[in-house]
What does this fold into?
Amino acid sequence: MSAVPLVSDRDVAAIYVDHHSWLVSWLRRKLGGADQATDLAQDTFVRILAVQETRRELTLQEPRAYLTTIAHRLLINHVKRVSLEQAYLDVLSQMPEPETMSAETRMLILETLHEIDAMLDGLGSKVREAFLLSQLEGLTYAEIAARLGVTDRTVKRYMAAAFEQCILLVAAE
It folds into this structure.
């Protein structure tokens, strides 16, 4: 297959026409036939358009490999989001009836959880875990260090990195 330079909307459209149905089929297999495959395929092409706008010199030797890479990353984010929502709903279902929240409050909490997840997405797993242990479980740095098997100083570095990531993403909005 020859290289396909992404220099115009027409080129992206050609890749869309040539590979969209294949990508939807690939995503359906990964998702077990879920309707979400069409949305993720669309998101994949939106990402390509975004890359096209920032890097005019992008050349694709293997469009399907490139599409698969982007779609796989979107699929991972989708699975994480669904898992996070399910964990929240599981906790919510265990709450006594008088403490159950309104649908609006639940949606606000879910949106906030997604925003926090996005903020922490770029962090290493231990940094993310240290931040969550501190913020959600209220553990001290010493307790976090013991649980993670690192020093207090390392936990301080982890927390500084996590807070910096959160501040940078909030400032960017």
